[in-house]
Amino acid sequence: MCDINVFVIKNGGEEKVLENVDLIEEVADGMRLVNIFGEERKLKAKMIRFDNSAKRMIFQPL
User: Fold this and answer.
1) What is the three-state SS of the chain?
2) Are 22 and 39 in contact (CB under 8 A)?
3) Looking at the DSSP assignment, which residues form a beta bridge with residue 34?
4) Which sequence spans correspond to the domains of the chain?
5) What is the mean pLDDT of residues 9-33?
6) pTM of the prediction?
7) Dihedral of CA 31/32/34/40: which sign?
8) Confidence check: pLDDT of 33 > 60
9) Would you state the pLDDT for residue 3?
10) What is the C-alpha to C-alpha distance for residues 62 and 53, in angstroms, rounded to an integer?
11) Are 6 and 22 a contacting pair, CB within 8 Å?
12) How far is 3 from 40, CA to CA, in rounded Å?
């Protein structure tokens, strides 16, 4: 599967926010994530790293 797992930096580590993310879009108050099952999360964060090989995207809270 080519879907991405999204993490947020928290307390010096990384916390998984959502698995199998298929859509990421910028919205007025941050980022909107939607996975292949229709689950949706909104983050007040900016993307700092995308690693396609590891299927990981890392965000930093604003």
Assistant:
1) CCCEEEEEEECCEEEEEEEEEEEEEEECCEEEEEECCCCEEEECEEEEEEECCCCEEEEEEC
2) no
3) 23, 40
4) 4-61
5) 95
6) 0.89
7) positive
8) yes
9) 84
10) 26
11) no
12) 14
